[in-house]
């Protein structure tokens, strides 16, 4: 009974709380940017919604991942970028406005796209195993715990701007603490699976992380976007909302074993983020040294 209360009520409420905090950081101008600078936003959107799940599918097939690991990786790839990507964009001195806009747009669109990716993954990799997954229930669950809280947060921001700006930082801190608690819970509950499959999961997560960042950089180069926009796309496509992925696995699908991938990814993504920040710092120093005194 206690486990049911945690997975069906407390965990979804916590994610809704985090999404409300994200909404407090957003304004309508974050969405208007889609019309003002469409190229980088559309590129990031396509990379996030289409290229990333395809990359994850390729990794699953190439590495012949076990069913729980393959489905877990696909669920992770179906999730949008989280607030972590905005923090990393800020630290890397990337295009923060673009980062926030992409996070906002992908968080909303994934409510409608993620259920299809998840249903495909379960149907393809579970080999007919009796896993009760309903497209409508996943869509409704994501709508209630992600989209509605974001919209509500934006409405509150519109009426109480100063308060929203003041408290938004506390929601970010709660999101970090909640993620750490989620990882700890998954490690404790799925210890045997993690020990048995850590090597393949760790490599798969690194491949997804670095492959996604590579997609962002290459896409920016092909479209001749600015260096700053390319860095932002690498961050946004490369860093997934692992908290949402774990919540989908544990609360909506009732399959904690699927959450192992998201738990491991929560650790590996910081390696990619650190490299991006270091790369941004290096290129900035190179640019400054090239400037005439």
TrEMBL record:
Keywords for this protein: Membrane, Transmembrane, Transmembrane helix
Domain of life: Bacteria
Entry keyword annotation includes Transferase: no
Membrane-crossing segments per the record: 6-27, 39-63, 69-88, 100-126, 138-159, 171-189, 201-223, 230-253, 259-282
Membrane topology: Multi-pass membrane protein
Compartment list: Membrane
Protein's UniProt name: Bile acid:sodium symporter family protein
Taxon lineage: Bacteria, Pseudomonadati, Pseudomonadota, Gammaproteobacteria, Alteromonadales
